[in-house]
Amino acid sequence: MQVKNTNGILPILVIIFTFLGSFASPLTSRTDFDGANLNFVVFHNPPFDVFKRGPNGTFTFDGVGLDIIKWMAAYFNFKYTLVAVNQTLVEKYGTHEASFYQLINDNEIDGISCAFFLTLDRIKRMDYTSSFAWVDGFSLVVPRPGEESRLFAFTRPFQPTVWLWILVVMIFMVGGMTLFTWHINRCGLVNDAPVVNDNTHHKRMKENGQNIFSYFSSSMIYVVNTMTNQGCKEAFGRHSFRILVGFWLLGAMVLVNSYAGIVISSLTVPKMKPPIETLEDLAFSKDVGLIIRHDVLMGEQILKATNGIYKILGDKVRPYPNQILGDPFKVNAMLETGKYGYPFVRAFNDWFVALQYKKDRQCRFHSTKPLPVPHGYYSWLLKKGNPNARIFSKGFTNLWETGLIFFWGNRAIGVARAAECFDGKRQKSKAQQVSIRLADLTSAFVILGIGLGLAILCFSLEQIKSMKSLVCFIKGNK
């Protein structure tokens, strides 16, 4: 009986161990390079890789790419040598194409430290790992919009259409009051009673300098006084005049109170310029230019597009060759000026925003929400026909499952160091009422300055006219 039980248990144990071994084999069986040396091209690829050239051909390299190479070297038992990208090729082809050239034509180069978005052209020229090293979407990095000018802040409570109709109504009111006043004085009617000596009345009005222009200016001052809530004495007691003025006062009361209730917030709450959030916003922006890299997929698509928004962006940037770059250092330098927008992978854009915040301690730039374009999956590129592509694919699968790549990438991007720039609630909390500053009242002082200047000019003309009249009078008496 014991023998039979033993024979029955053994096959079951064999099946169990075989089943468990099938799960363990991918993790334990891996290619051992037996300490062989592999050469990798390195270059500056922010935010993941930082490459700096030193004197006499020396350089420093650090970042996610180096972390991956170290992990792969330990996992597959090989040594590695880092080879700097050829600067002459960079100046001729751009950073990415220069590294591709070295990989394809230099027999000593085995791969590139950076991961690339796969295109049909790259697949034809090089082999790639089927497992990706990074996945990311695309967005825009653009300068954060500043405040609108406070010079015309006093006009914000009303829309332009409202201001237009206020002006039209004022013209009709001034015209009606001028006509009524002129008719009353012309007919010699005061308080609905005719003046007995009409000739005497007209003579007195003429001596006082009363004419149609005087009526117009008096009516204009009356209308403006009521609009500015200053008040003014009623010119005549006739019912027609009182009805006209009465309804004007009712309308002016609504307008003045509506304006006064909004103007304070218009002056004290900063109003920002419209932000750039989409490719369309960037394409039609007159204040923000465009930077593209001709050696990355997004740049290639924009420059080769024949229709759609990409063509509009291409037409915008083509007249300015200095904005079509292949050097990431130049891209960073131009972006720092705050005059350009840049469509690229979101990781780079977030890193750039965080980097500038670290420098300036303020959020000068903004990384938009993901653009409506497909996500990019980035793989290692190796020499064509190199069997290492399949080997490294298994390594990337296991490395991704550890979460280390995601950890290294987020550490390099450093969003946590600039949380203020990515937290919408913090940004909104800053748009609150503050004390009225001198800059907020610039428009009021400008208006006063214009009025003073016009008054001085008018006074000078009046003096010149008086002097001419005096000279003519003296010559006439002689």
Q: Give the biggest sheet.
A: 6 strands, mixed
**Discrete helix count:** 19
Quaternary status of these chains?
single chain
Distance between the termini: 159 Å
SS strand fraction? 5-15%
Which structural class should the secondary elements be placed in? alpha/beta
Specify Rg, calculated over alpha carbons: 39 Å
- Helical content band: 55-70%
Overall pLDDT confidence: 76
Q: Could you name the ranges where pLDDT drops below 50 across 5 or more consecutive residues?
A: 1-6, 11-29, 190-199, 204-209, 427-431
Question: How many strands appear in the DSSP assignment?
Answer: 16
- General form: elongated
Descriptive notes:
It is a single chain. This protein is an alpha/beta fold. Helix content is 56%, strand content 14%. The protein has helices spanning 2-28, 64-76, 87-93, 95-105, 120-125, 160-187, 198-207, 212-227, 239-268, 279-283, 297-304, 308-317, 328-335, 346-360, 388-402, 404-413, 419-422, 424-430, 442-477; strands spanning 37-42, 49-53, 59-63, 79-84, 111-117, 127-128, 134-136, 138-143, 189-190, 193-194, 289-290, 292-293, 324-325, 340-345, 365-367, 376-382. The strands form 5 sheets. Strands 1, 4, 5, 6, 7 and 16 form a 6-stranded mixed sheet that branches. The protein has a 4-stranded mixed sheet with strand order 11-14-8-15. Strand 2 (49-53) and strand 3 (59-63) form a beta hairpin. The longest helix is centred in the C-terminal third of the chain and has 36 residues, at 442-477. The protein is elongated, with a radius of gyration of 39 Å.
